[in-house]
Amino acid sequence: MTSYRFLTVLAGFAFLLTFSSCKKELAGINTNPNAVEHPQPSYLLTGATKTAADVYWNVGGTNPSNLFVQYWAAIQYTDQDRYIFSNSDFQDLWTDLYSGSIVNLDKIIDLAGAEDNPNYKGVALILRAWMYCLLTDAYGNIPYSESIQIDENITPGYDTQQKVYEGLLSDLKTAQDSLDADGKPVEGDIIYGGDIARWKKLDNSLRLRIALRIADREPEKAAAVIKSMADAGGNYIGSNSESAELKYQNTPPNDNPLAELFLTRDDYRISKTIVDRLFQLNDPRLPVYAAPTQDPTPQTYVGIPNGLLVGQASELGFTKTSRPGAAFLDETAPAVIMSYAEVLFDRAEAAARGFTAENAADLYKAAVTASLQQHNIDQGAIDKYLSQPALQYDPGNFKKSIGVQKWIALFGQGLEAFAEWRRLDYPQLKPAVAGVLNGKMPLRFIYPGTEQSLNKEGYRQAVADQGADVLTTSLWFDVN
């Protein structure tokens, strides 16, 4: 009996040795020989920024927000413009930001500590906060606190949108404290070229954006965030030259994704909604935002209604309707992450809410001016535009004055415009002509199908906390 037990133990020990050896061999086999063993933060920073900018600046299934806010409209394959989606249609934004960008920014933060370069940490935290803000603005509750330690949390829990915004404000404060213009340089920065002073301004500007996200729910906290930045002597983006944007190159794959899209496809036109508004206001940005029709038409610039049936859309004619303007389809057209005009609109709103002592009307006028100058409109045309009665700031309805002009100024930045339209409730957009939401507008993105299959517990909790996983569920920041 003793001999039998010894042989059994010996056999078991031999099995463990064999299994351990196999594990080592499998680990070696599953190791990518082409992977960088010691990644460089500069390369990670460039890649993370480019991946996020591409999906942010795209249109259609990967990012239908330009359709939702009626900047663009579909002239063929109109399902998405009618709000018909599967849960795989929203996959790219989720995957590209989480797996393509955030994971690399997390690595940069780790490397920054190992290399004693806090400037890398600060820049990575700012970019990561921007990306998480895009995600929560679009979907609502998202994996945030546990997704940062993905090795320990393969199926991370979802944080409420309120908690995500609170976390991002904290992250941006940490980033501000980490950045030192006299510190070690940052390489691989394709936004500001390593200019730490400008990163500090972007940090404050993003904190201002998020403070206003929570302003209808938590006005005291929003005011405190803005006051804390003023008390610290922090500056915001202060000119068009300081706007945060990725300047694309004229060679694939580093060209503007919209330019690349229109090389082989012709699915989209500018929306009739914004064309009509620009005509109504005699807005000099119309020939910037829209291209002349290929065939001569009485109006020269012709938008199409959102959400037509395929036959209705195609009957309008590809050559008799306007594509988006050349300035947006050029190979080198920049992806705007945050503009000077947006910051001025945000400062105007903060003043209108009583959060600062600045003059809301003056800042509103400066914001409109900055947007026009961003598109190289001459001063004479700017003065004429601003003199119109329809352009005068209304202190009794700051949301309307700021909301309409901010919507115009954010053209192309669909995700940001989608968030601001829901928050400010202006302009008052009409649902798609042949929409399928019973006369309602989309108020969020639905979660990608992979979350239901790979992270069931987190997904189910998010739905239980937030509401049905449908396009018409209001998010926490969207106060009706």
Automatic annotation (TrEMBL):
This protein's record includes keyword Signal: yes
Signal peptide: 1-23
Pfam families noted in UniProt: SusD-like_2
Entry annotated with the keyword Transmembrane: no
Keyword entries, A-Z: Lipoprotein, Signal
The organism's place on the tree of life at top rank: Bacteria
Name of the protein this chain belongs to: SusD/RagB family nutrient-binding outer membrane lipoprotein
The organism of origin for this protein: Compostibacter hankyongensis
